[in-house]
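FIELD: query
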Amino acid sequence: MEFTVAIDGPAAAGKGTISKAVAAHFGFAHLDTGLLYRAVGAKVLDGVEPIEAARNLTPSDLESEALRTSDIAQAASKVAVISEVRAALVAFQRTFAQQDTGAVLDGRDIGTVICPDAAVKLYVTASPECRAERRYLELSAKGHDVTRDGVLADVKARDARDSGRAEAPMRPAEDAILIDTSDMTIEEAVARAIEAIEAVRA
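FIELD: result
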């Protein structure tokens, strides 16, 4: 039976980790929709025109670990404001959401645009400072040359761009359950998400 969970929120709030854990717990398929935009951004950095890159995206394009770099994150945020790029990726996401096994999709506009009829909508957030510290530690551990101030500036710039774009701005759906992870452990956040989903499935 089709059962879609939409998980939205800003960068480094924990939605990806929560989404993977939720999908594993319930046996649902999982799609990190941000990877679609990162993959398009990566192709644009390689010289491909954005709309062409979006229209020709394949599942194998989502598998590279290189998609997690800061440069590609910024490129992803920039291509995401292009309406033709978003339109090209909508069908991919909606088809994924209709799996009989159940599906978890995480992104910026899943509950508001991609799957407005999702059975459960969660909005995972945290303070910019908290999210920047998490991202700084993650990038530093991977050997990237970054500073705390620089990462915080990037986080705030992405927030402004993602929430301020004309089409499908990042915002909680009206019926979304808010999970602020600023003062939560990842285990607490995952437990809160599972509790919210089980309440609807019961």
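FIELD: remark
The two ends are 14 Å apart (CA to CA).
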